[in-house]
């Protein structure tokens, strides 16, 4: 599978999260971003840190949490009871097992999953994990944004120490972007079965909530087959059997649309006089380790210019 046309730019711009920063020599340098968490959403300012792997924010139960910041914004303590979508992560939860490598000692049903972190500047935080909706602005087809959300696990900080319990450069929390799977950045492993290409384990394809019924061995990886990552191509190439399954589901609600071949370059095209962004379904590729790649209509339906009418190309 090659990368989708313009996929690199769109991945980087998939969410619109403006960054602020502080670089005074009297402080530790930091980047921070505004995010919204919960239902109804509340605003929080979190430090963006590629050197750590846990996302946490100060909790309403917090001891020694700063109540004000000299960065020019108001701090907010997160209260799970005020969010209808909040839920404590239990110590028997799979996330907690994965984080600690085993079931925690003295873990009983109903007990939450704890965390404790100490940073290089001797700042420290401890608390319990909770899951809730994080609200963000998702970039749509024409460079505009629309509200979106996803449920993630993060720490609810009960106690802060060292540099994290002062108002100097204080923020509501830290969002870690380091490599471990505890970050909100999702990854999927490469396979060693193909010695020529970088292969990934594609598990299933979902179109607008419908799971495609495909042969069990269609995505098997070997030296001659599998799903490869190729930065030198500009489109996604699917096996004929997958293409023939995916197209009818994409156009299931548009039986009046007729696909036709223009030439070998354009492939299958159709006429459509409206925006495709909210009319056609999303296509989601599910990879190993629960990585989901969402492909939006503006990714796989591209408008062709210069043909005298509004024509879209299917780029699978």
UniProtKB/TrEMBL annotation:
Organism superkingdom: Eukaryota
GO molecular function: aspartic-type endopeptidase activity
Cited Pfam families: TAXi_C, TAXi_N
InterPro entries: Aspartic_peptidase_A1, Pepsin-like_dom, PEPTIDASE_A1, TAXi_C, TAXi_N
One annotated GO biological process: proteolysis
Domain Peptidase A1: from-to ranges: 31-316
CDD domains, A to Z: pepsin_like
Catalytic residues (UniProt): 49, 230
PANTHER family xref list: ASPARTYL PROTEASES, EUKARYOTIC ASPARTYL PROTEASE FAMILY PROTEIN
Family (UniProt): Belongs to the peptidase A1 family.
The protein's name in its UniProt record: Peptidase A1 domain-containing protein
Organism: Zizania palustris (Northern wild rice)
């Amino acid at each position: 599978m090659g990368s989708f046309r313009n996929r690199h730019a769109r991945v980087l711009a998939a969410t619109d999260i403006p960054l602020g920063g502080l670089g005074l020599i009297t402080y530790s340098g930091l980047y921070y971003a505004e995010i919204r968490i919960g239902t109804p959403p509340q605003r929080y300012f979190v430090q963006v840190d590629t050197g750590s792997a846990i996302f946490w924010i100060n909790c309403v139960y917090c001891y020694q949490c700063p109540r004000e910041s000299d960065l020019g914004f108001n701090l907010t303590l997160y209260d799970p009871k005020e969010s209808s979508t909040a839920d404590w992560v239990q110590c028997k939860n799979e996330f907690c097992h994965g984080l600690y490598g085993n079931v925690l000692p003295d873990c009983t049903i109903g007990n939450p999953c704890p965390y404790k972190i100490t940073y290089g500047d001797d700042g420290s935080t401890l608390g319990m994990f909770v899951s809730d909706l994080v609200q963000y602005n998702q970039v749509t087809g024409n460079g505009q944004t629309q509200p979106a959300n996803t449920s993630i696990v993060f720490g609810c900080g009960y106690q802060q120490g060292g540099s994290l319990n002062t108002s100097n450069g204080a923020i509501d929390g830290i969002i870690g972007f380091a490599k471990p799977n505890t970050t909100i950045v999702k990854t999927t492993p490469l396979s060693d079965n193909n010695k020529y290409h970088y292969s990934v384990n594609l598990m299933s394809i979902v179109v607008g909530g419908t799971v495609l019924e495909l042969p069990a061995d269609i995505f098997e990886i070997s030296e001659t087959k599998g799903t490869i990552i190729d930065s030198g191509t500009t489109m996604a190439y699917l096996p004929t059997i997958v293409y023939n399954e995916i197209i009818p589901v994409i156009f299931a609600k548009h039986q009046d649309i007729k696909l036709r071949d223009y030439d070998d370059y354009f492939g299958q095209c159709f006429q459509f006089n409206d925006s495709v962004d909210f009319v056609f379904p999303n296509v989601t590729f599910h990879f190993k380790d629960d990585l989901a790649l969402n492909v939006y209509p503006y990714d796989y339906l591209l408008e062709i210019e210069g043909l005298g009418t509004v024509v879209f190309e299917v780029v699978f």
